Amino acid sequence: MPRSMAPPPSGEFSIRLTKPFTATTTPTSKIEIIGEPNRPATIKHTTHVGAQAQTLIIKEGSIDAEDSNELMDLIRPLAGLPSDSNKDLYGKDVRLDVATFEVQWDNGEEVEGGQEGREVTGENKEVFGGVVESIEALTRLKAKERTS
Question: Considering the entire predicted model, what is its pTM?
Answer without folding.
Answer: 0.84
